Amino acid sequence: MALLLQAGIAYHLYNRGNNRERIFREERNYIYFLKLYDRHISPVAETYAYCLLPNHFHFSVRIRDDAPDGQRISRCFANLFNAYARSFNRSYRRSGVLFERSFERKAVTDDRYLRQLIIYIHRNPQRHGLIDDFRTWTYSSYQTLIGTQPTRLKRDTVLTSFGGLSEFIAAHKDDFEDL
């Protein structure tokens, strides 16, 4: 049985398309997924970082202290993925499973791992050869975290964990251990 998400714990959450198929084909898919994510996940989790790629996604989240029990938290994620899959299947006249199994989750055990994870998530599009500079990937939290526009992301928490904005930017330039 999959690990139940627990209140007060940070996680690396990720999944990909079934058979590594694309789960995002057009800009509207990315936008709709993030809209659904906000609706279903923001009530139970704080988001530190994310990156959506054509056939997979990554999130760094912390389950809220006041979140319901683990099964209800997992149900929020299932609702997100099911709602997106139904819409995607309807839009592209397809049927069947969109995502691989249950989404993967790894507990974030310390601040160093959290910082490495955030960098890993942001660098993912460049690592997969989708773009030459990860900082220009549209469907990532990097630009939002270094920006000043209002956001539901936990910008202050993330930047503080790096020691500030300039340290956050510098850390993304440095080499880091792959996760």
From TrEMBL:
SUPFAM superfamilies on file: Transposase IS200-like
Protein name as it appears in the record: Transposase
Domain of life: Bacteria
All residue ranges annotated as the Transposase IS200-like domain in the record: 6-124
Organism expressing this protein natively: Candidatus Chloroploca mongolica
Annotated TM spans: none
InterPro entries associated with the record: Transposase_17, Transposase_17_sf
Chain coiled-coil ranges: none
